[in-house]
Amino acid sequence: MFDKLTQKVQDALRTISGRAAISEKNIEDAVDAIKMALLEADVNLRVVRRFVNSTIEEAKGENVLRSVNPGQMFVKIVHDKLVSFLGGEKQDLALKGPDTLSVILMLGLQGSGKTTSSAKLALFLKKAGRRPLLAACDLVRPAAAEQLSILGEQIGVPVYREDGAKDAVAVYRGALSAAKKSLADVLIVDTTGRLQIDEVMMGELQRLKAAAKPDELLLVADAMTGQSAVDIAKTFDEKIGLSGVILTKFDSDTRGGAALSLKTISGKALKFTGTGEKPEDFEVFRPERIAGRILGMGDVVSLVEKAQEVIDQKEAEALQKKMEKENFTLEDWLAQLRSVKKMGSLQKMIEMIPGMAGQVSEEDIDRENFSGQEAILSSMTRKERANHLIIGPSRRGRIARGSGTSVAEVARLIKKFEKMRTMMKKMAKMGRNPAAMQQMMSGGMEGMRRFR
Ligand SMILES: Nc1nc2c(ncn2[C@@H]2O[C@H](COP(=O)(O)OP(=O)(O)OP(=O)(O)O)[C@@H](O)[C@H]2O)c(=O)[nH]1
Ligand SMILES: [Mg+2]
To answer: Which CATH code for domain 102-294?
Structure first.
């Protein structure tokens, strides 16, 4: 998502951001390049026009051209515009307090990801300390209730279903009393999707809405459909009324136009994104961070949050200290490799590191050969991992045999570890120094890439 856009916007900004003085022509050229990038990313034409006009107007203002650092001032304007087009502030769910039952109605076209997103949202709320219950109100697709039950089982959230039922509203009522009985505090209602917006679907949704008086009516739309996701949001909002949107398949190779056009065209806020098929592939949509990512400022906060789910805070702090002092051992590395595996796609993680977006492909990561590294590390003794300096030729031979690799591979891994340690020390220090961080963003990546 946004890969190409990111690349192009960064190129456009690079030509201008370092300048001590900028002219109106410089601004026009940069805005023009960004305009092309937005159009290519499938952003709605009206949105692009608005973006261009307001950016130019603001950037040509006296205080930019004459400011101490006009280049950076311009970047800031573009950043703020992007944030505002992405919806401004992050939009939380408007749920009642934890002890009162809230209802969320999920709607959307067939295959948009309603059922999956219902489960994702349930897991998200469960992690936030809520007690969700899922209601299977899609009575049309034969396996719909079964699909939801399987997902519910996976995430440990109860599912209410009535096999053979004909009326979605009746099932909803059943789910409501089940929710009350079991003291659930959020009822998430999965509904039937149709190929197109038609009278039957709208009728059913309207009846469900009237019965449930939901706190949230969330449209689930497929980001891959680009502009039509935005049109669908507009239509659903007119016919049923929406409180927000979940854009799914954000992990796919879409160009991102829907996310950038949604707020301006439909007036509806993007609240969450689906970033994969698994229940945990779900993120709160934060305009500020996405803008930062597009501009190549990375998304350190998301990265840290993701990492926190697997590594606990204390561990992370200890690691930071070790990294700074070069006390990081092979033992720590092995632990890291294992937690990275738990974190899921490494590429997704790397994309969030400042300056890394678009720099590393899945193949690059494969070449890293994590399983191979893990095998070698696991074949070492604890003592060896605590102090790699004791690993002489005979130990190397034993480790190679144990891991099914060669002596040369073992030697290479140790060499790499030593380089990595030095690099980490530098990075850990930068992490506490914004100026050094910025330097790393501009040129430091080459260092990262080279050390592989
Ligand atoms: N890659 C990716 N796939 C997704 C995402 N969300 C859903 N899917 C996949 O999209 C397909 C359809 O998802 P469902 O949740 O069944 O969609 P639905 O809207 O409930 O479909 P109907 O009930 O038939 O209307 C499934 O194969 C999901 O695994 C996502 O964020 N990323
Ligand atoms: Mg479904």
So the answer is: 3.40.50.300
pLDDT at 352: 53
Identity of the highest mean pLDDT range in 19-33, 121-135, 432-446: 121-135
pLDDT of residue 343: 52
Give the pTM.
Answer: 0.68
CA of 213 to the centre of ligand 1 (A): 26
* Ligand 2 centroid – CA 111 distance (Å): 7
Q: Is the CB of 108 under 6 A from ligand 1?
A: yes
249 lines ligand 1 (CB under 6 A): yes
Local structure of 448: helix, strand or coil: helix
- Which pLDDT value is given to residue 145? 93
Spatial contact of 325 and 337, defined as CB atoms under 8 Å apart? no
Question: What residues contact 249, with CB distance under 8 A and at least 6 apart?
Answer: 113, 222, 223, 224, 274
| pLDDT, position 451 | 33
Give me ligand 1 centre to Cα 289, in Å.
25
345 lines ligand 1 (CB under 6 A): no
CATH code of 318-450, in short, is 1.10.260.30
Number of the ligand closest to the Cα of 274? 1
The domain limits of the chain are 3-85, 102-294, 318-450
Atom of ligand 1 nearest to the CA of 108: 19
422-431: Cβ within 8 A, 24+ apart: 422/326, 423/447, 423/448, 423/451, 424/323, 424/328, 425/323, 425/324, 425/325, 425/326, 427/323, 428/320, 428/323, 428/324, 429/324, 431/320
State whether CATH 3.40.50.12100 applies to domain 3-85: no
The answer to whether the 102-294 and 318-450 domains have the same CATH topology is no
| DSSP secondary structure letters along 241-273 | --SEEEEE-TTSS--SHHHHHHHHHH-PPEEEE
Answer yes or no: is pLDDT of 27 > 50: yes
DSSP 3-state helix, strand, coil percentages of the chain (rounded to 5)? Answer: 60, 10, 30
CA 267 / ligand 2 centre spacing (Å): 26
Selected residue with higher pLDDT from 12 and 353: 12
